[in-house]
Amino acid sequence: MPTNRLVSEKSPYLLQHAHNPVDWYPWGEEAFRKARQEDKPIFLSIGYSTCHWCHVMERESFESEETAAVLNAHFVPVKVDREERPDIDRIYMTFVQATTGSGGWPMSVWLTPDLKPFYGGTYFPPDNRYGRPGFRTLLEYIAKAWSTDRQRIIESGDSILKQIAEIVGAKSPLAIVDSTVVDSCFFALRRSFDPHKGGFGHAPKFPRPVQFHFLFRYYARTGNEEALEMSLQTLREMHKGGMYDQLGGGFHRYSVDARWFVPHFEKMLYDQAQLVVSYLEAFQITGEEFYARVARETLDYVLRDMTDPSGGFYSAEDADSVIDPNHPEEKGEGAFYIWPAQELEEILGHPEFDWFAFRYGVRPEGNVSPAEDPHQEFTGRNILYQAASIQEVATKFQVPEENLRRAFEQSRQKLLARRSQRVRPHRDDKILTSWNALMISAFATAAKVLEDARYLEAAQRAANFLKNTMYDGNRGILLRRYREGEAAIAGFLDDYAFLLLALLDLYEADFDASHLTLARQLATKIVELFEDKRDGAFFSTPEEAADLVLRIKDDYDGAEPSGNSAAVLALLRLSAMTADPSLEEVAQRAFRAFAGRLKSQPVTLPLMLSAYMLTEKKAKQIILAGEKSSPTMSQMFAAIRRRFLPHAVVLLLDEASRPVLSQWIPTADAMRPLNGLPTAYVCENFTCQQPATDLEQFRKLLE
Asked: What is the pTM of this model?
């Protein structure tokens, strides 16, 4: 089978294209040199390995000999995995969104040999259809324009790049952010909230956990019950729908409809990580076991299906999978997850099938309407969702609820066993520092809130993997991607910032002071490598990134938090933990740099506003002096963990950590166990209230 240059890459996405007839190059100087020498434009295609429409465009266009011939003759084709190189993706996505009004993947962009974009879009069909030009027709048109109207194209590229630089580098007058932006964000979310099915905006609906993060903290700050209920309702409705894997746990990427029913079936690590934290915080606030159960099921899915033997976590699972093992070339959206009613009946038998069908909305003809299934991928089959509660099933069939719970668990196990015999979706097994850091935070938070040692072990193993494999301690440099024994690609702002947050979360789970030592090293590097020393805030890339036409400041908390928001939050928390005011000063410079954005569009940066709320009332330090193994100390830990305390940091002063913490906290040496008893010091700005050795007294201090 013929191959191209991608065959030597590690990225699963690039390897998927290694046998295309297209003469693909990876992003790099070899491709750029060829473009300059042969005076050809670059065709840049950006996607990721679990992207449904990326697969479609590959089958329709990149596997076509005729289309490949046009591409190879007139362009230098370059492939980029957006998950490996989010810096490249952000630059050219900004261009596509600015020139077309929308964006997505696969992203298709035509560049001059010096990397300036002049035309772009997303998916292009092979022929003229869906109101889009056919890909081959477009290639021929651009090739002709390059040869006959080159100067206009080059001038257009220069002009567009200048405009993009103004968009991504827009400066607002230095200003002070005030509390009105926090209220503005809440009201904007309230206006877009769906009171019937939860979520914000209309279909398609994406989970955006930074919104829950903000709303929970807004509730803690104001007592606003509406902020709380918007989050809780959305979390409940998401779990009921096909968005959630009702058998195996874990969340799919998004829902194509407004009721969370028909999902786009890929599963992303970053969604699992952030949503686990959202459900755990909901559990802390409400005490309702439902939220803890969803978090456990999602974490157990990650441990079962997304964890590498090294301890790191894989990136994603595909939406598409094989429909019939006898025809492995035929794949369909969600084929691994959906069921004909007849197969369910055969596996479960009666009356269990009757109960199951009523609860999970199973119909003999399939439960997806033609309007919801325009490509007929789900015809005759069922997406499992919670159509009825267990109480409703009990009423309808006159069966005790406890009997039903046992029956549903047995049915789940039977169906999982049958599903395991199907061909699994492709799994993208690269390990990314930023997404692993989010997952470490989730496991560390679960270890605290649920007091489960398995989750702490998972967080510690992953953290050790990143420290030993992705971090060069001599230079303080972090790498982004690991796969098949190779750690590569210099880390970006989000890698450093997310890992810094993960180390703080892990410290508050196991109180190993070495996490704080590394956290301080990373904080120093964030300021050194990424801060805009003139205008404040952080660039996504270091200054020496030579293969980029722009440095961008990421300013949107989307499916993933922006690096800027994460960095600001992490620096404020670390400042509170180590009594370092210089870190807060860096964060305050970032707030001033984003003041215009926060005032005009606060809903775009809810995580940054969560960080801002941490500055409104100085973070509370809860410092526990004594040995970790003491029963009383365990009770103090439990008192903290049962409460939602978003504006507090927790430190342990035992004999092992005291020498480390004393380097940073002037008062640490004076904070000792009183009368040999574990003692709690509850402080603000390291000015402390009366120390407490009595558990009830400590609980009152927490309130």
From this structure: 0.96
